[in-house]
Amino acid sequence: MSETPRTCPHCESSLDKWLVPDGASWDEKYFYVCFNDECSYYQKGWAWMKSQFNQQASYRYMVNPTTGACSPLPVWSDSATREMIIKDDEGGEV
């Protein structure tokens, strides 16, 4: 399998390693997620979720490191799920 992408194809920002919450239905321990609030994927998601589902929500670009598959990670605010970003020993993103 080829190496997992580490940049967002929508904004070219680095993806952050994000801890999958306990009790989630995913088998993986972490995903790579774009947390750039200016990302077009994230920005356009607000209007799309409102028009399709009448919800105040959006989504962030996410990559599964096991399969390489990308999918949306639902969020309800700019700060939602940021506490799950995994930092390395020196405080930077992994």
Summarize the structure.
With 94 residues, this protein is an alpha+beta fold.
Structure commentary:
The protein is 15% helix and 21% strand. The chain has one helix at residues 40-53; strands spanning 16-19, 30-33, 58-63, 70-75. The chain has one domain (16-84). The two termini are 21 Å apart. The protein is built from one helix and four strands; from the N terminus they run ββαββ. It has a four-stranded antiparallel sheet. Residues 89-94 have low confidence and may be disordered. With 94 residues, it is α+β, with helices and mostly antiparallel strands.
Rg over alpha carbons: 13 Å
Task: State the order of secondary-structure elements, H for helix, E for strand.
Answer: EEHEE
Mean pLDDT: 90
According to DSSP, the number of beta strands is: 4
Question: Percent range for helical residues?
Answer: 10-25%
Apparent shape? globular
Pairing-aware structural class of the strands and helices?
alpha+beta
How much of the sequence lies in strands comes to 15-25%
Largest sheet, strands/sense/barrel? 4 strands, antiparallel
Write down the domain tally: 1
| Spatial strand order of the main sheet | 1-2-3-4
The N- and C-terminal alpha carbons lie at a distance of 21 Å
- Indicate the multimeric state: single chain
Number of helices: 1
The residue ranges in which pLDDT falls below 50 over 5 or more consecutive positions are 89-94
